[in-house]
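Notes taken during the Thursday session

The instructor put the following on the board and asked us to keep it in front of us for the whole hour. The protein is Large ribosomal subunit protein uL3. We were told not to look anything up and to reason only from what is written here. First, the residues (145 in total):
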Amino acid sequence: MKIPGKKIRMTQVFRSDSTLAVTLVKVANEELAKSLTPGIEVTVVGKTKGKGFQGVVKRHGFGGGPKTHGQKNRYRAPGSIGSTAPQRVVPGRKMAGRMGGDRKTLKGIEVVEVNPEEMMITLKGPIPGNNGDAIEMINVPEAEK
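Then, after some discussion, the predicted structure tokens were revealed:
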């Protein structure tokens, strides 16, 4: 069963012995909220935050060049992108480009709390995307009649 929803915000739930990071999600209607029970695990699909065009240091974690020994402006450069022999850039080379905005699937996210009147559910941990982004919960166990 699939349940569409909208990410509202992240917050914390304070327990007697610990603090739990949770995400509030608003579901489409009351019946879908009633079909969920606290304690079950669901698979959540969302779209990650877009970061725009990023260089290789941020996008792929490259170390950059040395700060000294005659270097002027090579601090965050990718370095060599290939050898002389093939006379082309090999496919799959890590380069600068657009980062984020990808479909991300998280499995085993626990439902902490369900509020059918407000059509809100509380999921344990972070969920991909900005506040207000559409998410989808899949592989939700069917409610027992």
